């Protein structure tokens, strides 16, 4: 990616690889020349065609009750929706806002606890011996199994939902952070010790940067798991939110609103993962430059 240009003295100089917006623009121009974006468009189009064939054209048994894409999009963009939910109704926007607010709180708590916990578990063997068995005992318990206990432990609608979303996200964040620390080459620790680095210097300059790629990979997975847990909790113990909207629409047989909420959930979940990925790229410019120099 480095560019060679001639300066005023006639000698060639090597320009540093692009960063920030220039790097994003460079990658966008390169991606247009590859099959990837066109395959993505083809995949979405194939899904829409299949969805339309099953529900609106062929009306396959068990699929004829599901609203097709034309009906859903028409209702979604209608200022006066027949089923009461559209992009222009206040209730629909409130449900999106409530779910996004809950995800922000739960994901923030899980990140604030899970990242330091994973770092210390990977850095200190003694701390890992105490904490890892507890984590591994609680992690296999399905989130839905926690629902009755969460309702008993916390009052109201909000706190149990936040607890369930935080718990699911916490396990993923902690384990990926721990894996990131374990992936650091032992030679870096030996080199830091030979240079007289104190433990706190090793933590800040070896452990944290070395685990950073795994941390942000884990955070991308974590925010998706948080959405999954949140929607499941909202279906059971919610008053607002996209999960509540899905369950409420199903109970009153407004399937158009149900499908609308599901598609909205997909878009919002994708957007939150993209934001986490953008923050990670911003905080790891050194890694992006290294990958760019490798042509990746």
N-to-C CA distance: 10 Å
Tell me the helix content.
Answer: over 70%
Number of strands: 2
**What is the number of independent domains?**
2
Q: What is the approximate shape?
A: globular
Q: Helix and strand layout, with pairings?
A:
Blueprint: E1 3-6, E2 12-15, H1 20-32, H2 36-57, H3 69-76, H4 90-123, H5 125-138, H6 143-153, H7 158-182, H8 186-194, H9 199-237, H10 242-251, H11 255-283, H12 285-293
Antiparallel strand pairs: 1-2
Helix pairs in contact: 3-11, 4-5, 4-7, 4-9, 4-10, 6-7, 6-9, 7-9, 9-10, 9-11, 10-11
Any overview of this molecule?
- The chain has helices spanning 20-32, 36-57, 69-76, 90-123, 125-138, 143-153, 158-182, 186-194, 199-237, 242-251, 255-283, 285-293, and strands at residues 3-6, 12-15.
- It has two domains: 3-67, no CATH class; 90-293, MetI-like fold, CATH 1.10.3720.10.
- It is mainly alpha-helical and 296 residues long.
